[in-house]
Write a structure and sequence with these properties.
The complex is a heterodimer. By secondary structure, chain A is mostly beta strands. Chain A is 0% helix and 50% strand. Chain B is mainly beta. Chain B starts with a strand and ends with a strand. The chains are: A mainly beta, B mainly beta. Chains A and B meet through strand 4, strand 5 and strand 9 of A and strand 5 and strand 10 of B.
C-alpha cells in the first residue's frame, strides 16, 4: 500500500513546453485533487475529481487540464508552461469511508525557465 | 467562494509554553476544518480535524475549537516542544471528504528550547 504516489519529484521545463504530472493512489479513494503551493503561501486548489469521469475546477485552474479515466489515476497537464507555474504541486486523495482524512502525495517540484 | 484567513503568520514561543493559531472562514456552509503541519520540504500532514457538529476536539497536546456562529476555529498546542516547530495550515471545506479544501496562508511556529 503506497498511498498517493506522484511523479516526477523534480522537473525543469522551458517556457512553452508541455508536461504531465502523474498521480496515482492505491487506496480506492473516490476523491482526488491537485494543489499548488507557492513560497510562503498555503495550498491552492487547481482541480479536483469526485470520481472516475468527473472533474471540476478549483481556485486556480487556468493553464492546467485534468482527466480521471480510472479511480486510481489523476494526471495534471500543463499545456504551455509559464514561469508563473513554477511551484510545488501536491496531489491528494480521500474517501467517504472511514474517518475522511485527506492524504497528500510527497509533492512535485516544478521550475519553469 | 470560501475564503480562509489565518493568524498570526509567525509565532515564536518558549518550550513548554502554549501556542494558539486562529482561523476565520467566510462560507457558513463549510462543515469540515482540518489542521495540517508541514515541515520544510515535506508534504502537509493532518494533525487534527473537526466537523461542524462538534465544538471541540482534543488529541493529547493538540486541541481544536470551533465557533460556528462567529465562523472561526483555533488550534491549541500545549507544552510545546522543539519538534513542534513547523508551518501549520488551517483549511475549510463545505463538503467533507471530497479533497476540496480551501487553505489559510499558514503560520510558522518556532519553539525555542
Amino acid at each position: 500500500n503506497a498511498g498517493v504516489t506522484q511523479t516526477p519529484k523534480f522537473q525543469v521545463l522551458k517556457t512553452g513546453q508541455s508536461m504531465t504530472l502523474q498521480c496515482a493512489q492505491d487506496m480506492n479513494h473516490e476523491y482526488m485533487s491537485w494543489y499548488r503551493q507557492d513560497p510562503g503561501m498555503g495550498l491552492r486548489l487547481i482541480h479536483y475529481s469526485v470520481g472516475a469521469g468527473i472533474t471540476d475546477q478549483g481556485e486556480v485552474p487556468n493553464g492546467y487540464n485534468v482527466s480521471r479515466s480510472t479511480t486510481e489515476d489523476f494526471p495534471l497537464r500543463l499545456l504551455s508552461a509559464a514561469p508563473s507555474q513554477t511551484s510545488v504541486y501536491f496531489c491528494a486523495s480521500s474517501t467517504d469511508r472511514g474517518p475522511g482524512a485527506i492524504y497528500f502525495g510527497e509533492g512535485s517540484w516544478l521550475t519553469v525557465v | 467562494g470560501e475564503n480562509v484567513e489565518q493568524h498570526p503568520s509567525t509565532l515564536s514561543v518558549q518550550e513548554g509554553d502554549s501556542a494558539v493559531i486562529k482561523c476565520t472562514y467566510s462560507d457558513s456552509a463549510s462543515n469540515y476544518f482540518p489542521w495540517y503541519k508541514q515541515e520544510l520540504g515535506k508534504r502537509p500532514q493532518l494533525i487534527i480535524d473537526i466537523r461542524s457538529n462538534v465544538g471541540e476536539k482534543k488529541d493529547q497536546r493538540i486541541a481544536v475549537t470551533l465557533n460556528k456562529t462567529a465562523k472561526h476555529f483555533s488550534l491549541h498546542i500545549t507544552e510545546t516542544q522543539p519538534e513542534d516547530s513547523a508551518v501549520y495550515f488551517c483549511a475549510a471545506s463545505w463538503s467533507s471528504n471530497t479533497g476540496k479544501l480551501i487553505f489559510g496562508q499558514g503560520t510558522t511556529l518556532q519553539v525555542k528550547p
